[in-house]
Design brief:
Elements: H1 3-22, E1 23-26, E2 30-36, E3 45-46, E4 50-53, E5 60-66, E6 70-73, E7 77-80, E8 86-97, H2 103-110, H3 114-134, H4 138-141, H5 148-162, E9 168-179, H6 182-252, H7 255-270, E10 275-280, E11 315-320
Antiparallel strand pairs: 1-4, 2-3, 2-5, 6-8, 7-8, 8-9, 10-11
Helix pairs in contact: 3-5
């Protein structure tokens, strides 16, 4: 290599070193903190992306903070619940540097870098996560009517209070995994079986009590109905007795009509279906159907003039066909 070329290369390297020491770039997803002799103030926050100038590196030092969402996760570990059970849970935390005016500067004062903030927040989140889940019973953390969202919000608020002055914005907190260890699962199953038996026995007792109440109520109503029916029956019997008495009083004035009506009732009742009767013609009350009564008898029924040669019947045969 000749001397002019070496000088040129050396000059370019020197220029590159100088440019590197007096310039820096800020990406669109970053905010820079420029410390002069280790001191920072509000003017030290550089939020505009692009190329920026600074004093040489031994005067100005630039720390770049990533403003995108950062993720912190807890390990999968056992956590006690409020009812004394153990659950195995893992949680996640999304956070970022606060975009408020003093957020990046507060973050730099407390953490200096994203890496150090992640380590600190991981420890704090692990503690808050266990305390948040421990405030609820197992039944409140699982099932269709669980309060898991409430527990997550409680953890988020605890982390927000802890990081309020550190330029950290807590975006979201959640439970990514929740399950029972084997020994706790057996205990939960046994407890659920005991609760189901207790509920079954309680419902059975309620059913028996309801059954007794229904039986007692039905007996009371039956007694009321029976009492009313007996009272009504006595009233009807009394009315019937009075009516029968009136009828008997009327029949005493015309005994022959009463006997005749009784014969008709007996005749009608006897002939209410398929009936064949063979009796002497003068047997009461069948003598009423004898059309050849001998004139001149006291019980003779007047007959129309049927002319000479009308047959006489010593006996009567009655037959009725009905449905």
């Amino acid at each position: 290599m000749n001397k002019p070329l070496a000088v040129t290369v050396g000059g370019l390297l020197f220029v590159a070193f100088v440019l590197f020491s007096v310039t820096y770039t800020v990406k669109f997803n970053e905010v820079a903190i420029r410390a002069t002799f280790g001191e920072v103030d509000e003017s030290s926050v550089i939020g505009e992306s692009g190329l920026h100038f600074r004093w040489p590196i031994f005067i100005d030092q630039v720390a770049k903070l990533d403003t995108r969402l950062q993720l912190v996760e807890t390990p999968l570990e056992e956590t006690p619940t409020a009812d004394g059970l153990q659950v195995v849970a893992r949680g996640f935390l999304f956070w970022r540097v606060a975009d408020e005016e003093s957020g990046p500067l507060d973050f730099y004062y407390k953490y200096q870098s994203i890496e150090r903030a992640t380590e600190t927040l991981e420890t704090s989140f692990r503690t808050a996560f266990g305390a948040g889940l421990g405030a609820y019973s197992f039944r409140e953390l699982v099932g269709s009517e669980n309060r898991l969202a409430e527990a997550e919000e409680r953890i988020r608020e605890a982390m927000a209070r802890e990081t309020a002055a550190g330029g950290v914005e807590i975006v979201a907190v959640g439970v990514s995994q929740l399950m029972l260890p084997p020994r706790t699962a057996r205990a939960v199953v046994e407890r659920m079986e005991a609760e189901r038996r207790s509920l079954s026995e309680a419902e059975n007792r309620k059913g028996q009590a309801a059954r007794q109440n229904l039986i007692a109520g039905a007996a009371t109503e039956a007694d009321k109905i029976r009492s009313f029916a007996n009272r009504r029956a006595r009233e009807i019997e009394g009315a019937a007795a009075r009516y029968a008495k009136e009828l008997l009083e009327g029949m005493r004035g015309n005994q022959e009509l009463a006997i005749f009506l009784a014969w008709l009732d007996t005749l009608e009742a006897s002939l209410n279906s398929r009936t064949t009767i063979i009796l002497p013609a003068d047997t009461a009350p069948w003598h009423l159907i004898d059309p050849t009564r001998v004139a001149g008898r006291e019980d003779a029924i007047p007959q129309p003039d049927r002319g000479a040669g009308a047959p006489s019947a010593p006996a009567a045969t009655a037959e009725r066909t009905g449905n």
